[in-house]
Amino acid sequence: MKAAIIETYGGPDHFRMAELPRPEPKPGELLIRIQTSSVNPVDVGVRAGNILPDEAANFPMILGWDAAGTVEALGPEIDDFAPGDRVMAISPQPGSLVGTHAQFAALPASQVVKIADAVSFTTAAAVPLIGSTALAALQALDLAPGARVLINNPKGAVGAMAAKIAPLLGFELADPDTQGVDGAVDVRGREHAQKAFAAVKDGGAYVTVVPEWWKPGGVFTPARGITPVTVQNPANRDVLAPLADWLAQGDLLPDIEEILPLDQISEAHRRLEAPGHTGKLVMDHTRL
User: Fold this and answer.
1) What is the CATH number of the domain that holds 277?
2) What is the mean pLDDT of the chain?
3) Residue 27: is the preceding peptide bond cis (ω within 30°)?
4) Considering the entire predicted model, what is its pTM?
5) 157-209 per-position pLDDT tens digit
6) Strand, coil or helix: what is 271?
7) Do 102 and 15 contact (CB within 8 A), yes or no?
8) Residue 152, helix vs strand vs coil
9) CA within 20 to 30 Å of 288's CA: 105, 150, 157, 264, which one?
């Protein structure tokens, strides 16, 4: 199979297209023929060596979290999928070392959901990582419908998706400068995290998806009756399934900036690193 690989950490030009053996699905896994994938800021961090795998680096490395395509083959112990099923999936990089910037990937069935025929592979590939992260963060607020929720960067990747999902959960989306909100989701970190925390009313809820920037003390004080919660991507079917339903119903539509052939992955990374980037960059695996 063809895959976009890196053989060492470095800049965007470290990618090259290579021919690799097609993976075989293990028990509980599906082999997915990937039609489209997308790039995320975390991919840039891994490629540059700033976000390291849980295990020792295994080169050549295939990056990528998001995938959409069809089921090619089933591993043992799979009975709820069939070859040809249209699916979207998530690979929990960098822990799994199984990337999606390739023609095939073998992934646990627990990280795959079926998508409706009306949902394009391009749309589906733009959703798994940012969508599941945003949904998990909003769910972690544990607030009732009608609550006013602040998202401190509703134009960024995860923030924009959270802003789309919040109304679907019954939340009222507050302006980023609003004070006294019922809950806040921090997607920026650093001083922006503290500003979002300060905007929450005493006894409210606060969640951050950037835990490495959360610092105890300062405005993060127990006296306000707020317990900060950190959320990392759960990468499972429980959060992917509602996203697939919303896509099927036309209630959720990701912002896609451009579709590029997989062999232009270096260009996608350069754009992702450039200031002012908005929208998802989707990689087309059929144009090789």
Assistant:
1) 3.90.180.10
2) 92
3) no
4) 0.94
5) 899 999 999 999 999 999 988 999 999 999 998 888 889 999 999 999 999 99
6) helix
7) no
8) coil
9) 157
Element (H, E) at 122: helix 121-125
pLDDT digits (tens, 9 = 90+) for 228-258: 898 988 889 999 999 999 999 999 999 999 9
Residue 205, beta-bridge partner list: 183
Q: Report how far residue 179's alpha carbon sits from residue 236's, in angstroms, rounded to the nearest whole number.
A: 34
Residues 121 and 63 in one domain: yes
E strands present in the chain: 2-6, 16-19, 29-38, 61-62, 66-74, 86-90, 104-108, 112-114, 148-151, 172-174, 181-186, 200-208, 229-230, 256-261, 280-284
Structural domain range at position 57: 2-126+254-284
| Nearby residues of 82 by Cβ (< 8 Å), 6 or more positions away | 71, 74
pLDDT grade, residue 217 (50/70/90)? very low
Q: Side chain identity at 150, as an amino acid letter?
A: L
